[in-house]
C-alpha cells in the first residue's frame, strides 16, 4: 500500500517494552495509523494492548523502538470512566482546558458543545454518582473530545457496560467520529465490537504481544445495528476469532 | 424511625439513669462528699454557672487554637511528606513518636522551657491532636486514582495543579475523618495539660477547677465541671461532623445520609 508520508498520523517502529522485573510486555511492534483512521486492537488479556496505548500516549516510556506522532493532540478514554467525584459533569469535562490554562469562558462553551454531542447537555451540573455507568462513560468521552484531539486512544472503554448500552455507545462513537474525523485506536476484548467500529483491525498475540495480523474491514459507513446480523460481518469476526485462537494455541505449546 | 424519636430515645435513657441515681443516693443516704445526687450537681451548675462558664471559655480557647494549629501544621506536614518517599521515611517515625508518647511525660519539660502558660497548654494540646490529621491526610494524598493521575500527566499538569485539583480533593474526606478524631483529642490534651500544669487563679481552665473542687471534696462542683467538659467534647464532635457533612454532601459516599445518624 502506498501512502504519502504526510498522511501518516502515527508511526511505531519496533516499539517494545520490558518491565523492570524482566517481564517482556510487548514484543517489537510496528504499525502506522493514517489521519482519520479508526483502528481496533484486539488480543487476549495481558498481551500488552494497554501498555501499547500508554506508550503512544507518552505515559510510559518504551524500552526500544520509535514512536512518531504528527501533531500529537491526544484524548484518552480509560476502561473506567475515571471522573473526579467531587466535580460536576461540566467541571469534569472542562478539566483538560483548565490544565492547559485556556480561558474560562472558552472552556464553558466547548464543554457545553461536547456535552450536547454525547447527549448529556441536561446533566451538566450533576455529580458523577448521580449518573448511570453508561452516562459516566459518555462524560469520559466528552472530556476526551473537548481538546479537539487528533488522536483518540480508548482502552476497553465499554467493557464494563451491559450489551444494550454498549451497542448504543458503539453507534454514538461512530457518529462522533464521522462528524469530527479524529483518528482512533480502540482496544477491546470483543472481536465483534472491534469489527463493527474500525477501518482496520490489528490482532495481537498473547504476551509478549506483537501484531500477528492487520485486517481491512470493508463495510461502508455509516454502519448501523443491522450490520451486526450481516453474514459477511459474522464471517469476518469468525475468521479473526480463528486467528486469535490459533495464536493462543501456539503460545500454549 | 423518625428524627424526633431518634432524639428522644437517648434522652429518655439518660433521664432514667439520672432518676435511678437520685433515688439510690436518697435511699442509701450517701453523703455528698462521696457521691452527690444529680440535683446537687444541677444546683452547682446553676449557682457556679457564670464562673464555670468563664473557666470553660479558657479551656475552649486553648482547645480550638490547638485544633486550628493542628490542622494547619498537620496538613502542611502531610503535603511535605507526600513530596518524596525518602522524606516520608525520614520524618514519619517522629510523627509516630509524637503520637505514642504520653503528653503527661513531656509536660514537665515544656513547663520548664516555656514561660507563657497559654503557650504551654497550646503545645501540649497540639501534640495530642496533630497525629490523626497528619496520618489521615497523608493516606488521602496517596489515594488519588492512578488513571486520573495519568490524565493529568497527559494534559501536562504541573505539580501545583496536581496537588490542587487532584490530591487535595481526594484527601479531603480522609482529612475530615482525622479532624473529627483530633477534635476530641485536642480537648483531652488541653484537660490533661491543665491538670499537669496546675494552673490556678483567674485564668484557670475548667480542668483546673475540677481538680481544685475535688481536692476540697466539693464533688458536686467537680462533677458539674465534668458534665460541662463532656458536653463540650460532644459539641466539638457534632460541630466537626456537621462541617464534614456540609463539605462532602454533594459527592462523597459517607455524606449521603443525614448527619444526625453519626
Please characterize this protein's 3D structure:
The complex is a heterodimer of chains A (253) and B (262). Chain A is an alpha/beta fold and 253 residues long. Chain A has two domains: 5-73 and 149-252, P-loop containing nucleotide triphosphate hydrolases (Rossmann fold), CATH 3.40.50; 87-146. In chain A, 37% of the residues lie in helices and 23% in strands. Chain A contains seven helices and nine strands. Chain A has helices at 49-57, 89-99, 104-117, 133-145, 163-180, 191-197, 231-252; strands spanning 8-18, 24-34, 38-42, 64-69, 74-77, 151-155, 183-188, 200-204, 211-216. Mean pLDDT of chain A is 89; it is low at 1-6. Chain B is an all-alpha fold and 262 residues long. Chain B has helices at 3-27, 38-47, 49-83, 85-100, 103-113, 117-141, 146-154, 159-197, 206-215, 219-248. The longest helix of chain B is centred in the last third of the chain and has 39 residues, at 159-197. Chain B folds into two domains: 1-30; 39-261, MetI-like fold (Orthogonal Bundle), CATH 1.10.3720.10. Chain B is flat and about 75 Å long. The mean pLDDT of chain B is 91.
Q: How many helix segments of chain A?
A: 7
CATH architecture verdict of the largest domain in chain B: Orthogonal Bundle
Cα radius of gyration of chain B in angstroms: 22 Å
Task: Determine the strand fraction of chain A and express it as a percent band.
Answer: 15-25%
- Based on helices, strands and strand pairing, what is the structural class of chain B? mainly alpha
Mean pLDDT of chain A: 89
Major pleated sheet of chain B: none
CATH topology of the largest domain in chain B: MetI-like fold
Q: What features would you highlight for this structure?
A:
heterodimer; A: 253 residues; alpha/beta; Rossmann fold; 2 domains; three-stranded antiparallel beta sheet; 23% strand; disordered N terminus; B: 262 residues; mainly alpha
Amino acid at each position: 500500500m502506498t501512502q504519502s508520508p504526510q498522511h501518516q498520523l502515527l508511526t511505531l517502529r519496533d516499539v517494545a517494552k520490558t518491565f523492570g522485573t524482566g517481564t517482556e510486555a510487548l514484543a517489537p511492534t510496528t504499525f502506522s495509523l493514517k489521519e482519520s483512521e479508526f483502528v481496533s486492537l484486539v488480543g487476549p488479556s495481558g498481551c500488552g494492548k494497554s501498555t501499547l496505548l500508554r506508550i503512544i500516549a507518552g505515559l510510559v516510556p518504551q524500552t526500544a523502538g520509535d514512536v512518531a506522532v504528527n501533531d500529537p493532540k491526544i484524548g484518552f478514554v480509560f476502561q473506567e470512566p475515571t471522573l473526579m467525584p467531587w466535580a460536576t459533569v461540566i467541571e469534569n469535562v472542562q478539566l483538560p482546558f483548565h490544565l492547559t490554562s485556556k480561558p474560562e469562558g472558552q472552556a464553558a462553551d466547548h464543554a457545553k458543545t461536547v456535552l450536547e454531542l454525547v447527549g448529556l447537555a441536561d446533566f451538566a451540573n450533576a455529580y458523577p454518582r448521580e449518573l448511570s455507568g453508561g452516562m459516566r462513560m459518555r462524560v469520559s468521552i466528552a472530556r476526551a473530545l473537548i481538546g479537539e484531539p487528533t488522536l483518540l486512544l480508548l482502552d476497553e472503554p465499554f467493557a464494563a457496560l451491559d450489551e444494550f448500552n454498549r451497542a448504543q455507545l458503539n453507534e454514538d462513537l461512530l457518529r462522533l467520529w464521522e462528524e469530527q474525523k479524529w483518528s482512533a485506536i480502540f482496544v477491546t476484548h470483543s472481536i465483534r465490537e472491534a469489527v463493527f467500529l474500525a477501518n482496520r483491525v490489528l490482532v495481537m498475540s498473547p504476551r509478549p504481544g506483537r501484531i500477528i495480523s492487520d485486517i481491512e474491514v470493508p463495510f461502508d459507513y455509516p454502519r448501523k445495528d443491522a450490520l451486526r446480523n450481516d453474514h459477511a460481518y459474522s464471517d469476518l469476526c469468525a475468521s479473526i476469532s480463528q486467528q486469535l485462537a490459533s495464536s493462543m494455541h501456539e503460545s500454549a505449546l | 424511625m423518625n428524627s424526633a424519636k431518634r432524639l428522644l430515645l437517648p434522652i429518655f435513657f439518660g433521664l432514667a439513669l439520672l432518676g435511678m441515681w437520685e433515688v439510690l443516693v436518697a435511699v442509701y443516704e450517701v453523703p455528698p462528699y462521696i457521691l452527690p445526687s444529680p440535683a446537687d450537681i444541677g444546683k452547682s451548675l446553676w449557682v457556679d454557672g457564670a464562673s464555670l462558664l468563664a473557666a470553660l471559655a479558657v479551656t475552649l480557647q486553648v482547645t480550638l487554637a490547638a485544633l486550628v494549629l493542628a490542622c494547619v501544621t498537620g496538613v502542611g506536614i502531610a503535603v511535605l511528606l507526600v513530596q518524596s518517599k525518602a522524606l516520608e521515611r525520614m520524618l514519619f517515625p517522629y510523627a509516630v513518636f509524637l503520637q505514642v508518647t504520653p503528653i503527661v511525660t513531656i509536660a514537665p519539660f515544656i513547663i520548664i522551657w516555656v514561660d507563657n502558660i497559654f503557650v504551654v497548654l497550646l503545645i501540649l494540646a497540639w501534640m495530642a491532636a496533630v497525629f490523626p490529621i497528619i496520618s489521615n491526610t497523608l493516606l488521602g494524598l496517596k489515594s488519588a486514582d492512578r488513571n486520573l493521575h495519568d490524565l493529568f500527566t497527559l494534559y501536562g499538569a504541573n505539580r501545583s495543579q496536581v496537588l490542587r485539583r487532584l490530591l487535595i480533593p481526594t484527601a479531603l474526606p480522609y482529612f475530615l475523618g482525622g479532624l473529627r478524631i483530633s477534635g476530641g483529642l485536642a480537648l483531652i490534651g488541653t484537660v490533661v495539660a491543665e491538670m499537669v500544669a496546675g494552673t490556678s487563679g483567674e485564668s484557670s481552665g475548667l480542668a483546673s477547677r475540677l481538680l481544685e473542687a475535688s481536692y476540697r471534696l466539693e464533688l458536686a462542683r467537680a462533677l458539674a465541671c465534668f458534665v460541662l467538659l463532656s458536653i463540650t467534647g460532644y459539641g466539638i464532635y457534632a460541630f466537626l461532623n456537621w462541617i464534614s457533612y456540609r463539605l462532602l454532601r454533594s459527592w462523597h459516599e459517607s455524606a449521603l445520609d443525614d448527619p444526625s445518624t453519626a
